[in-house]
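Objective 1b of the project was to move from sequence-level analysis to a structural picture of ligand recognition. The entry below was assembled by the postdoctoral researcher (A.K.) and checked by the PI before modelling. It contains the amino acid sequence of the target and the SMILES of the bound compound, zinc ion.
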Amino acid sequence: MGLYEAFKDVITVAQKADNVELYRQLLDLSAQALDMQAEIARLKEENTELKKRRDVASEIIRHDEPCVTLRNDNQNLFYCSHCWDSQQLLIQLNCHENGTFECPHCKAAGNYNNELKRQSDAEMARAFSEMNSRAHNLFL
Ligand SMILES: [Zn+2]
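Corresponding predicted holo structure:
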């Protein structure tokens, strides 16, 4: 028997006994008990959510770059460390081949792989230099 049904039965008994004061106190008690039951349900839900966050937090791997990854993640996805630190949100970063990223949520940007970024910058510098010397040869 649930709390609501139990109180309904007891209140019916109090009504039949024609005891107005007992009836009034039982109504107050039942209202309080039902409020407490709702609060317990809310707290259970909140506790489940906190446990989930704690479990995820234990899987977080920090890096020198402003991003985090998850232990045992076969895809090796990168997530925004700012979003994780400020709101415990795992927001997957938009990663580019040149080693840079942007967060689609907070718009933070940076390098997820400094070595890739250095290689990409060096290739760009080489390509620019080669283009410059070709242009120089064309016009002189
Ligand atoms: Zn973010």
